[in-house]
Amino acid sequence: MIVTIDGPAGSGKSTTARRAAAQLGHVYLDTGAMYRAVALAFLQADAAPTADGARQVLPTLDVDVQYQADTMQVFLGDEAVTDQIRTAEVGDVVSNVSTLASVREYMVDEQRRIGHEQADVHGGVVLDGRDTGTVVFPDAEVKIFMVADLDERARRRQQEYEAAGEDVSLEEVRAEIERRDRQDRNRDIAPLRRADDAVVLDTTDSTIAEQVAFVVDHVKAQRAQGT
Length: 227
Known about the structure:
Layout: E1 2-6, H1 13-24, E2 27-30, H2 31-44, H3 51-57, E3 63-68, E4 71-76, E5 79-80, H4 88-97, H5 101-122, E6 125-129, H6 132-136, E7 142-147, H7 150-163, H8 170-186, E8 199-202, H9 208-224
Parallel strand pairs: 1-6, 1-7, 2-6, 7-8
Antiparallel strand pairs: 3-4, 4-5
Helix pairs in contact: 1-9, 2-4, 4-8, 7-8
């Protein structure tokens, strides 16, 4: 089974998807982390987040994931970069890198490959991102679109940066998310939008446990219906 969870930055996708996958006995594929790994590759190559930069980076790019005790680890080649990709510096670059047509083409192919592989091995995979239900897996059995108000999303993202040892003000994070929202909604390729058959989950005032329970219950209900 393929379960997709899409939504804007800070809506709670990653934490909810990871915990829901664990409860369902599925694996979790964090597509945002994969894009962050690509952004890190651009930084390491001192490449601009442009089409020319992509032509410099993509020929040797090798993004992969491995699962250790059901936890997803991200790799660039043989280098584990799971912690490095959560910095504010990477966050500043990923929004531009992810709009590049060649990067998105590469990533969609990789996400489909990994998603199908993991679903075959584990019986199901839960993905989260911006376009997993509209572009990557438009035929996914379950699609959820998560939303939350801007201030709450900024607070959550700031906590992520603090956990990674980054000192970033709430105002800076809020501005970053507003900029990312505009880019996500207005980009020409795979703009952020809700799939017609996706269920909307507003997480502004809900706990993580409530969000996870909603996803798990919905997946089980769809499975019981044979979809």
